From TrEMBL:
A Gene Ontology biological process term: DNA damage response
Superkingdom per UniProt: Eukaryota
Domain PP4R3 EVH1-like: residue ranges: 5-101
Organism: Kryptolebias marmoratus (Mangrove killifish)
Gene Ontology CC entries for this record: nucleoplasm; protein phosphatase 4 complex
Protein name per Swiss-Prot or TrEMBL: Serine/threonine-protein phosphatase 4 regulatory subunit 3
Coiled coil regions, renumbered to chain: 644-671
């Protein structure tokens, strides 16, 4: 399959009237038994899979365009196109199609499409309508010609007939000759008619006519005709703009004359479509679909021709990075690469992939690293746009380059750090460039677009790289603007509200808001790395300094950062917040806000509401213990009362849990209790053992009485222990009896005290009597066994 004549690209027209590339392969025409007819088959050159199988129907209208395109429709909304690499291959397949349909290969269309609305009265049309008779191309007949062209636009059949008539008689060039004469004589009426004629011919939507009208010797006359719109008092000066104002700059001389001609043609046709022609109405929106396709295929061809010319592109990048290149030249080179990348957007994904790989191989990223650090604002802006194209298409390619960069002694020479510096140093008061760069950084550090299948280590390696070499550059402005907080602990209470560092400058506040937005994204998507960074740098404390900012949006960004951290419900973060008492600046901001019902008020209350609803016990206990007195007066929402309720519920639950442990200890049977008593007495060697031995020596009945007496003594010890051993400080129990004294002193060393110390709640007095009956200190060691 090395025959390049048969090499084609298969395109389909999507709903947005844009051509989608379905792949590259080789076309053949052969009889397919299943379809019962000669069919066009295209097999992919990569794996031989079938890209297209289309029967050549006798009634399908095929069109040949630009010598290398064959276009047809297989259904109402399904248009197909074959783009041939060589004209010879296109001619060969076209002859086969015409042979099957019994048509003349000299024509560029094989069928006359019939509009459904006209099928009913088709029989009424005389046979002579197979040709549209054009009036002679004379000055006196221009009005008649204009009426004819305008009248056929509503009928698909007549549009086809008129297009064939215009092509067969070379009518277009004759009309353009009349235009030159009318303009010389300043014949405004004739010029107005020619405007209507040329506009109508464009709306015929025929590629064959476009080939003539947009050729080098005709296109400027076509533009001239379109200057004389009858609705305008004075004609526009489009030709003057195209020839004098718009300059074609060759940053590197283009030796290929065909490429140069294609670039000129595409620019001018795009100008006609975007500037000269009025926006089509709803009824005319499909009249210029072929014009859109014409521009699309031209752009694809330009990109392909430039991409294949490695000498040209190599020279571009060599001059771009050469220190000897003067600023104006470098500006033109960067703008060229930017325009080149913009053209590549017309390519399909697989072609764009090859395009960007070509640029990467030529050194686009090292070149951007140099150019983005230059002082010229225009050069930097264009470089950022190019970087945007690269990141949006293939963030992995950029990440791979960054990690392969040699680790310099100065981190700011790394590409990502250059990008961060540009974001921080953006001179635009609205930070337009910084917002764009922040979005690109976010894309680069987003784990969602890191390839897990082909390179399982990309996420780990890149994030480790980013946090080691780049994160300190990103957070530098934030840390610099909150540096005074280090000494805030030494300042008198209330002095934090006087904040000399919190930026009053709107631009700085905006920058910090962008950085906080990126850090908030990191909290949500980078678990280990950002957690380590926050803990090591005490970052949340520094961020919460910004709660004092006069810019509410910045205070909200700081609050959002904390909210995202709490939203993870991670106990490591919770302990960090509790230890640092980091709710204080938030609660101060709430109290300072007063009774104002605004976004800050709602956002802070939502934070506490989340803690209540999610029942984050450690944070609830911390908030109620330390701040409830300041918050209990807030009654317009039930959030803080709810937090107090949660706190009390947990307190009751822990108390019940403690009681349950005590009741479980009572479930030991008497024999087990006796065994434990014996075991403890052996270890302790105290008076209880001697007393029980004397009881056993008497009789069984005396033993039972002695046992009950021992149990009663133990209950007395339990009461003493409950009152005397709070979880925080061990104390000596009251000496109710010799046995209770021994047990009380021995218990603090056992694991049971740890269990009791989980809750620092006093036991209610009305439960003391029940506990006296149920508890025994000699049973407690069982809880740890």
């Amino acid at each position: 399959m090395s025959d390049t004549r048969r090499r084609v690209k298969v395109y389909t027209l999507n709903e947005d009237r844009q051509w989608d590339d379905r792949g590259t392969g080789h076309v053949s025409s052969t009889f397919v038994e299943r379809l019962k007819g000669i069919s066009l088959l295209v097999r992919a050159e990569s794996d031989g899979s079938l890209l297209l199988e289309s029967k050549i129907s006798p009634n399908t209208a095929y069109q040949k365009q630009q010598d290398t395109l064959i276009v047809w429709s297989e259904a109402d909304n399904y248009d197909l196109a074959l783009s041939f690499q060589e004209k010879a291959g296109c001619d060969e397949i076209w002859e086969k199609i015409c042979q099957v349909q019994g048509k003349d290969p000299a024509l560029d269309i094989t069928q006359d499409p019939i509009d459904e609305s006209e099928e009913d009265h088709f029989e009424e049309i005389p046979e002579t309508t197979h040709l549209v008779e054009l009036p002679p191309c004379e000055l006196s007949r221009l009005e008649e010609i204009a009426d004819l062209v305008t009248s056929v636009l509503s009928s698909p059949i007549r549009r086809e007939k008129l297009a064939l008539a215009l092509m067969s008689e070379g009518y277009i060039k004759k009309l353009l000759g009349l235009f030159r004469g009318c303009e010389d004589m300043d014949n405004r009426e004739g010029l107005h008619h020619l405007y209507e004629i040329v506009r109508g011919v464009l709306f015929l939507n025929k590629a064959a006519l476009f080939e003539v009208m947009f050729s080098d010797d005709c296109i400027m006359d076509v533009v001239g005709c379109l200057e004389y719109d009858p609705a305008l008092v004075q004609p526009k000066r489009h030709r003057e703009f195209l020839t004098k104002t718009a300059k074609f700059k060759e940053v590197i001389p283009i030796t290929d004359s065909e490429l140069r001609q294609k670039i000129h043609q595409t620019y001018r046709v795009q100008y006609i479509q975007d500037i000269i022609l009025p926006t089509p109405s709803v009824f005319e929106e499909n009249f210029l679909s072929t014009l859109t396709s014409f521009i699309f295929f031209n752009k694809v061809e330009i990109v392909s021709m430039l991409q294949e010319d490695e000498k040209f592109l190599t020279e571009v990048f060599a001059q771009l990075t050469d220190e000897a290149t003067d600023d104006s030249k470098r500006r033109e080179l960067v703008n060229f690469v930017k325009e080149f990348c913009a053209f590549s957007q017309t390519l399909q994904p697989q072609n764009r992939d090859a395009f960007y790989k070509t640029l990467a191989n030529l050194g686009i990223l090292p070149a951007l690293e140099i150019v983005m650090g230059m002082d010229d604002l225009q050069v930097r802006a264009a470089a950022i746009d190019i970087f945007s194209y690269l990141v949006e298409f293939s963030p992995s390619m950029v990440r791979e380059f960054v990690m392969q960069e040699p680790q310099q002694t100065e981190d700011d020479v790394l590409l990502i750090n250059v990008v961060i510096k540009q974001m921080i140093c953006d001179s635009d008061p609205e930070l337009g460039g910084a917002v764009q760069l922040m979005g690109l950084l976010r894309t680069l550090i987003d784990p969602e677009n890191m390839l897990a299948s082909t390179n399982k280590t990309e996420k780990t390696e890149f994030l480790s790289f980013f946090y080691k070499y780049c994160m300190h550059v990103l957070t530098a402005p934030l840390l610099a603007n909150t540096a005074h907080d280090k000494n805030s602990k030494d300042q008198p209470e209330g002095s934090a509200k006087i904040n000399p560092v919190c930026p009053d400058n709107f631009q700085t506040a905006q920058l910090l808001a962008l950085i906080l937005e990126l850090l908030t994204f990191c909290v949500e998507h980078h678990t280990y790395h950002i957690k380590t960074y926050i803990m090591n740098k005490d970052l949340l404390r520094r961020v919460l300094v910004l709660m004092n900012s006069k810019h509410t949006f910045l205070a909200l960004c700081a609050l959002r950062f904390m909210r995202r951290i709490i939203g993870l419900k991670d106990e490591y973060y919770n302990r960090y917040i509790i230890k640092g008492n980091l709710f204080e600046p938030v609660i101060n901001a709430l109290l300072d806000n007063g009774t104002r019902y605004n976004l800050l008020n709602s956002a802070i209350i939502e934070l506490f509401e989340f803690i209540k609803v999610e029942d984050i016990k450690s944070l609830i206990a911390h908030i109620v213990d330390n701040f409830y007195k300041a918050l209990e007066s807030i009654e317009y929402v039930q959030t803080f009362k709810g937090l107090k309720g949660r706190y009390e519920q947990e307190k009751d639950r822990q108390s019940q849990k403690l009681n349950k442990y005590r009741r479980d200890a009572r479930s030991l049977d008497d024999d087990e209790e006796l065994w434990f008593n014996d075991d403890e007495d052996d270890e302790d060697g105290e008076a209880v053992e001697r007393r029980m031995e004397d009881d056993f020596s008497d009789s069984y009945e005396k033993f039972m009485e002695a046992k009950k007496g021992a149990a009663n003594g133990a209950n007395g010890a339990n009461n003493g222990k409950s009152a005397a051993i709070p979880p925080a400080s061990p104390t000596v129990a009251p000496n109710n009896s010799s046995s209770s004294s021994v047990k009380t002193v021995a218990l603090p060393a056992t694991p049971v005290v740890k269990t009791v110390g989980l809750v620092d709640y006093p036991v209610d007095e009305d439960e003391d009597e029940d506990e006296e009956e149920e508890q025994s200190p000699r049973k407690r060691p069982r809880l740890s066994s």
